[in-house]
């Protein structure tokens, strides 16, 4: 599963979080955010992390040109559109960005209409992301979604779950939903833009324990299923 830790501003924290197990680091390129980071600062973080770690820039309601410039200058592998970008905007951006750069469209879920809207983006973006709606803030709100009401959400493209995830509630979320990845920001912070490495380590412990449990369950099933199959394939004596 993809695990994106978002709102990285410090090279040493980016490096430590990559070592702890993040598959992606997120950088907030929205000037109004307390987690804002410039393309030059993103480069400073990126230079300290292994190349296989994804580097996602988060944008909101800005121009295609601005996104492309930061993507190149920041050496990004993906861009996350967290504002009110239309499917047409995403299509235009797709034509301008290299195909290797992933486009993630974040939907701030206010009601069930937002989930219907998700269909409009299929084919225009690579991945969808669900975040909680907040009347004043675009993201990094720490607000969780109503996971129970999302159980029917099954888009025909990969999707990431965001919104108020923490080391304490991540198991609960993943017991109810099966996203292709998760995205955490304020739930693993001391203050906006200042990640708490103890909380990040706790998150990966939770995910590791979860994986071990799933593997153990799988292993306990194999002998039984294997035995069943052998029985089915026994030659007939008639
Ligand atoms: O984090 C921000 O400041 C931010 C600003 C503008 C757009 C998006 C932003 N963050 C994104 O919000 C979600 C969820 O954050 P949280 O875990 O609830 O704190 C995440 O995808 C961030 O990339």
From TrEMBL:
It catalyses: N-(5-phospho-beta-D-ribosyl)anthranilate = 1-(2-carboxyphenylamino)-1-deoxy-D-ribulose 5-phosphate. Pathway: Amino-acid biosynthesis; L-tryptophan biosynthesis; L-tryptophan from chorismate: step 3/5. InterPro entries: Aldolase_TIM, PRAI_dom, RibuloseP-bd_barrel, TrpF_fam. Residues 3-206 form the N-(5'phosphoribosyl) anthranilate isomerase (PRAI) domain. Pfam families: PRAI (PF00697). It comes from the Bacteria. Keywords: Amino-acid biosynthesis, Aromatic amino acid biosynthesis, Isomerase, Tryptophan biosynthesis. Its EC number is 5.3.1.24. It is an enzyme of class 5 (isomerase). CDD domains: PRAI. GO terms for molecular function: phosphoribosylanthranilate isomerase activity. One of its GO terms (biological process) is L-tryptophan biosynthetic process. Belongs to the TrpF family. This is N-(5'-phosphoribosyl)anthranilate isomerase. It comes from Gloeocapsopsis dulcis AAB1 = 1H9.
């Amino acid at each position: 599963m993809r695990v994106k830790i978002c709102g990285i501003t410090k090279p040493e924290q980016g490096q430590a979080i990559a070592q702890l197990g993040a598959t992606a680091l997120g950088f907030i390129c929205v000037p109004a955010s307390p987690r804002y980071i410039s393309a030059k600062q993103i480069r400073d973080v990126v230079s300290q992390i292994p190349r296989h770690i994804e580097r996602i820039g988060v944008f909101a309601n800005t121009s295609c040109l601005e996104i492309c410039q930061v993507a190149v200058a920041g050496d990004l592998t993906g861009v996350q559109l967290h504002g009110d970008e239309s499917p047409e905007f995403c299509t235009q951006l797709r034509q301008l960005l290299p195909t290797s750069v992933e486009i993630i469209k974040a939907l701030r879920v206010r009601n069930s209409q937002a989930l219907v809207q998700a269909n409009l983006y299929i084919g225009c973006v690579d991945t969808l992301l669900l975040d909680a709606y907040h009347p004043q803030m675009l993201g990094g709100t720490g607000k969780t979604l109503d996971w129970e009401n999302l159980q029917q959400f099954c888009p025909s493209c990969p999707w990431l779950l965001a919104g108020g995830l923490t080391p304490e509630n991540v198991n609960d979320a993943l017991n109810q939903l099966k996203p292709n990845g998760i995205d955490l920001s304020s739930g693993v912070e001391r203050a906006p833009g200042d990640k708490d490495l103890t909380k990040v380590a706790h998150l990966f412990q939770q995910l590791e324990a979860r994986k071990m449990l799933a593997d153990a369950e799988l292993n306990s099933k194999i002998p039984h299923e294997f035995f069943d199959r052998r029985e089915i394939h026994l030659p007939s004596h008639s």
